[in-house]
Amino acid sequence: MEEGNRHTMKLSDLQEEILEVIQSSFGVPRWISCEIMDITQNYSGHCYLDLIEKDEKSDKVLARARATIWASSYRMLKPYFETSTGYELASGIKILILARVEFHPVYGLSLNIQDIDPTYTLGDVERKKREIIQKLEKEGVLDMNKEIPLQIVPQKIAVISSITAAGYEDFMDQLKGNPYGYQFYTRLFPTVMQGENAEQSIIGSLEKIFEFESHFDAVVIIRGGGSKSDLTCFDSYDLAYHVSQFPLPVITGIGHEQDETITDLVAHTRLKTPTAVAGFFIDKLASFEGELEELQDILINATVSILNEQKLRLHLHQQKYISGSVAMVHARQEHLLKLTGN
């Protein structure tokens, strides 16, 4: 359409032209690496994502795109990905997707995801963990908390956990119900143990405990089991750095038997479950009591041995004294007889 000397076109015509170009240039799906910024599932089962790419050094967002996974695909891709990786599809996860580029005249450009490669996500997670561990090693703090001596009888314990967590209840039940009747002083520092706020919440609890450092023998970080996504906060550099630098021994029982987290790695002692952490402290006291009983037995045996030895010596001295006395009496008697001429 001509308007004056200018050629004009309808917006819909422009969109149609863009659509034709995209269809001709992007007819084949592409493998694309990206990070999930946001993800939602609607009532019909369709999944909608905001995908981004960040600069590795500055963390600046370099690119952003909308994406969809239709319900028919999402029903298969979601469980496959989560079973293969142990992680949920969630914000902050890096993924490698097979996606078709689509363009809609009203909704604009988007990606339709047809497949997700779980090995890429696992590789990225392990790469990040290695980089953090190497950084901690380079800074010389990786084993610092392990070098802090644990009290021989650790009974005053600062607890970092969610107040409603089953793991915390298991920990307390195990401590209170120990068969020896040992008494422990515990103080809970209520903490968010999963989700976006978990990392800062745990660090905040460590900072509060630091203010009462002299009141405690050790710190425990406990939570029940969960998916790998639930435990991602324990693989953060900031949390690991705080744990490694903490002036009290930190004992972890994060409720997972495999895939040691970085927080586990830098802690003084890593145990599998909250119950195992309680058992660790009970065993410490039982071991000390056992050592005291051994020392008591050694002391009693040594005392009995010394008493028996001294008793024997006294007996020998007694016999010697009696024999000497008898001999002296006989000698005196003979002397008297000679004097009397009898």
Protein model, in words:
The protein has 342 residues and is α/β, with parallel strands linked by helices. The protein contains eight helices and twelve strands. It has helices at residues 11-25, 71-85, 118-138, 166-176, 198-211, 237-245, 262-266, 274-340; strands at 2-3, 6-7, 30-41, 47-54, 61-69, 94-104, 108-117, 156-161, 185-190, 218-222, 250-253, 269-271. It has a five-stranded mixed beta barrel with strand order 3-4-5-7-6. The protein has a five-stranded parallel sheet with strand order 9-8-10-11-12. A two-stranded antiparallel ribbon has the order 1-2. A hairpin with a 2-residue loop joins strand 1 and strand 2. The termini are far apart. 24% of the residues are buried. The mean pLDDT is 90.
What attributes does this structure have?
342 residues; alpha/beta; 5-stranded parallel β-sheet; 12 strands; 46% helix; rod-shaped
Runs in which pLDDT lies below 50 for 5 or more consecutive residues are none
Proportion in β-strands: 15-25%
Order of helices and strands: EEHEEEHEEHEHEHEHEHEH
Rg, Å, rounded: 38 Å
Q: Strand order, main sheet: write it out.
A: 3-4-5-7-6
The number of E-state strands comes to 12
Q: Number of helical segments?
A: 8
Protein structure class: alpha/beta
Oligomer type: single chain
Give the terminus-to-terminus CA distance. 171 Å
Helix content: 40-55%
Quick description:
The chain is 46% helix and 23% strand. It is of the alpha/beta class.
Task: Give the SSE map.
Layout (H helix, E strand, L loop, with lengths): L1 E2 L2 E2 L3 H15 L4 E12 L5 E8 L6 E9 L1 H15 L8 E11 L3 E10 H21 L17 E6 L4 H11 L8 E6 L7 H14 L6 E5 L14 H9 L4 E4 L8 H5 L2 E3 L2 H67 L2
Parallel strand pairs: 5-7, 8-9, 8-10, 10-11, 11-12
Antiparallel strand pairs: 1-2, 3-4, 3-6, 4-5, 6-7
